[in-house]
């Protein structure tokens, strides 16, 4: 199995596309329902990330019989998967915020302001933070933040899931030339 690194990249790119499309579908459903920033939307996105990462790790473990799967390889697999899916999802987010609904960024800032006030943050701090967000937050910066946050979430979930999807090598001479 000399081509395993390329097969890992192919696997993560393919399933990263599928996971990104599932995240997009989730967002479109909540956008059409009129609540794109719903907490339930976030929970479903986490479930999609966990489910897809588990599926890909299990699939990779089951198909790599002789070499086994180390913890670090499973962790890298999950992180790459979430990175590729975040690229797909962030492109969708950019198009949505920039071309489809230009008022969505203002709605997002209002939503963040409401959440901060509900959490008990003093109004003077909220006003200061919202003024800063209005200057910095654009569809491009929001999309870049999506890439970073989804990749980090995938890494975090992969830290836990990799424990369950490691596999010892069955061939003691695997990798020895």
Outline the secondary-structure elements.
Blueprint lengths: L3 H30 L5 H25 L7 H30 L3 H15 L4 H14 L2 H26 L13
Helix pairs in contact: 1-2, 1-3, 2-3, 2-6, 3-6, 4-5
Outline the structure in words:
With 177 residues, the protein is an all-alpha fold. It has a domain at 4-97 and 147-164. The chain contains six helices and no strands. The chain has helices at 4-33, 39-63, 71-100, 104-118, 123-136, 139-164. It is elongated. The model has no long low-confidence stretch (mean pLDDT 88).
Number of DSSP-assigned strands: 0
Distance between the termini: 12 Å
Q: What best-fitting shape do the alpha-carbon axes yield?
A: elongated
Say what oligomer this is. Answer: single chain
Compute the gyration radius: what is it? 20 Å
Order of helices and strands: HHHHHH
**Structural class assignment:** mainly alpha
Helical run tally: 6
Q: Main β-sheet, in a few words?
A: none
Helix content: over 70%
Low-confidence stretches: none
SS strand fraction: under 5%
Mean pLDDT: 88
Task: State the gist of this model.
The protein is an all-alpha fold and 177 residues long. Helix content is 79%, strand content 0%.
Name a few traits of the molecule:
mainly alpha; single chain; 79% helix; 177 residues
């Amino acid at each position: 199995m000399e081509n395993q690194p390329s097969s890992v990249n192919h696997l993560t790119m393919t399933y990263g596309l599928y996971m990104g499309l599932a995240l997009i579908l989730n967002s479109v459903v909540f956008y059409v329902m009129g609540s794109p920033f719903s907490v339930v939307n976030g929970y479903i996105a986490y479930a999609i990330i966990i489910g897809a990462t588990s599926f890909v790790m299990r699939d990779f473990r089951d198909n790599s019989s002789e070499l086994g799967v180390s913890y670090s390889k499973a962790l890298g697999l999950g992180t790459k998967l979430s990175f590729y899916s975040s690229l797909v999802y962030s492109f969708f987010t950019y198009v949505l915020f920039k071309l489809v609904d230009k008022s969505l960024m203002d709605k997002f800032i209002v939503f963040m302001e409401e959440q901060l006030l509900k959490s008990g943050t003093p109004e003077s701090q909220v006003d200061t933070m919202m003024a800063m967000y209005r200057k910095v937050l654009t569809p491009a910066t929001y999309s870049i933040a999506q890439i970073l946050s989804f990749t980090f979430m995938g890494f975090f979930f992969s830290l836990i899931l990799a424990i369950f999807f490691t596999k010892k090598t069955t061939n003691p001479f695997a990798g020895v030339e």
